[in-house]
Design goal:
Strand content: 15-25%
Order of helices and strands: HEEEHEHHEEEHEH
Distance between the termini: 39 Å
Number of helices: 6
Structural class: alpha/beta
Shape: globular
Oligomer: single chain
Number of strands: 8
């Protein structure tokens, strides 16, 4: 459900903005036009359409992710990213109007992009309810702008702290 509803349907709908927060991020492949392609390709295509993409994650991704990342120069130039070791919340917010939040990290096993027998047991909510999206967006934005950086106690592990 998370893969089909969030990754395959929700993310490609973004017209203006896509905000993603995850503790863990790995190289994930998704179906596009009857082929499996890196999720990073989808993000690069959205950026090419003028979608602002912000990504907050807690740790550096592994080598396969970095190799795919390097295949899409648009990501290096336009993907906005903050690494925050305190982030453990997971959400995807599309155009400030639709959101997923739940337990799944942005990984193949977490999102259910792997086979039936190789996925995690996750849960989450997909909503267009402003009373849920507004506080979720505020949480994302507060981390994005570094509102908690001065007191977090892990600044030495935060190479791109938004608070400077």
């Amino acid at each position: 459900m998370i893969y089909t509803e969030i990754i395959a349907k929700l993310v490609p709908q973004a017209k203006k903005s896509l905000w993603i927060a995850t503790a863990d991020i790995k190289d994930m492949y998704v179906e596009q036009n009857d082929a499996m392609v890196p999720f990073l390709k989808i993000l690069a295509e959205l950026i090419g359409k003028g979608v602002e993409i912000r990504l907050i994650h807690a740790k550096e991704p592994g080598q396969p992710f970095r190799e795919d990342f390097d295949r899409y120069p648009r990501l290096l130039k336009f993907l906005e990213r903050v690494l925050c070791p305190r982030v453990h919340f997971k959400c995807i917010i599309v155009d400030g109007k639709l959101a997923y939040f739940g337990s799944a990290n942005l990984t193949g096993a977490g999102m259910g992009a792997k086979s039936e027998n190789r996925r995690n047991f996750e849960n989450g909510i997909l909503t267009d309810e402003p009373s849920l999206i507004e506080p979720l967006s505020e949480q994302f934005d507060s981390v994005w702008r570094g509102a908690n950086c001065q007191k977090c106690g892990r600044r030495q592990y935060c190479p791109d702290c938004p608070a400077g």
